[in-house]
Design goal:
Layout: E1 2-11, E2 19-29, E3 34-39, H1 45-53, E4 60-65, E5 68-69, H2 75-78, E6 82-85, H3 99-107, H4 121-132, H5 151-163, E7 169-173, H6 181-198, E8 202-205, H7 209-214, E9 218-223, E10 226-232, H8 233-238, H9 241-252, H10 259-263
Helix pairs in contact: 3-5, 5-6
Length: 265
């Protein structure tokens, strides 16, 4: 489904601020893979996700989605293949629009704009049923402005919007980092449910080791712009945080120093 071939990315090349963010990354995701990505600060996690999304061009290598070479496509043209949820709950929705209007925008993304844009009764009923599955009471607030929702409600709505067209790939960039633990757990449960229901190929960047182990069928750890661990199947199911730290030290030759990840374990 997704193939990343030997991609490199250096920011501010030739300057005192030069930073090699991706250093020959190779990665293949099969249809339905749910991969969690973890690593220390500056390891290249979000840079990899943003490279796939087309936020910036890679310096070298290729990116293929469902057999299509998207390496040269802009972020806008690549968006039809992807669903994305960001760290900030305020991103990804239109705060001044109603819940049903936000869902309609997501459902019609990439489709021709017609004069009869109004939301039909059947569409509204469909949105109500979808929202009911979130178990947040939003199905009774279809006309409420999204800006009035809590961070967790808004992030759950963003997830629904990102998956409404069943994208080729779902990208989650630390999408629970700004939420309190209870709300984050609810959003992660919603994530698991939507990914399983639609068999979505998913990449979830997280700083939380416990979440990285508990969710998905595959775990990738990055360090200095490289993938140094790729754990899946039964090995991942048996994995503990102590195992993960030991494996990191064994492969990288250094200790894992991301305080945020260690403290959140």
């Amino acid at each position: 489904m997704i193939e990343v071939k030997n991609i490199h990315k250096t920011f501010n090349p030739g300057t005192i601020n030069e930073k090699r963010a991706l250093n020959g990354v190779n990665l293949t995701l099969e249809d339905g893979d749910f991969v969690t990505v973890i690593g220390g600060n500056g390891a290249g996690k979000s840079t990899l996700l943003n490279a796939i999304a087309g936020v910036w061009p890679v310096d070298e290598g290729g990116i293929f989605i469902d057999g299509v070479n998207v390496t040269g496509l802009s972020e806008f043209r690549r968006a039809k293949y992807l669903g994305r949820v960001f760290q900030d709950p305020m991103t990804g929705t239109a705060a001044d629009m109603q819940i049903d209007e936000n869902l309609a925008l997501a459902a019609r993304r990439g489709k021709p704009r017609l004069w009869g844009w109004g939301i039909t009764a059947s569409e509204r009923e469909n949105y109500r049923e979808m929202l009911k599955e979130l178990d947040l009471g939003l199905e009774e607030r279809l006309t409420a402005k999204v800006g009035l929702l809590s961070g967790g409600q808004r992030q759950a709505l963003t997830l629904l919007m990102a998956t409404i067209q069943k994208p080729k790939m779902l990208l989650l960039d630390e999408h629970t980092a700004a939420l309190d633990p209870k709300t984050a757990a609810k959003v992660l449960a919603t994530t698991d449910k939507l990914v399983a229901e639609h068999n979505l190929t998913t990449m979830m960047v997280t700083h939380n080791m416990r979440d990285a182990i508990a969710h998905g069928n595959r775990l990738i750890m990055m360090d200095e712009g490289r993938i140094i661990l790729d754990i899946r199947g039964e090995e991942k199911k048996r994995l503990t945080i102590e195992d993960l730290l030991h494996k990191f030290e064994e492969v990288s030759g250094s200790e894992f120093t991301n305080d945020q990840a260690i403290l959140s374990k």
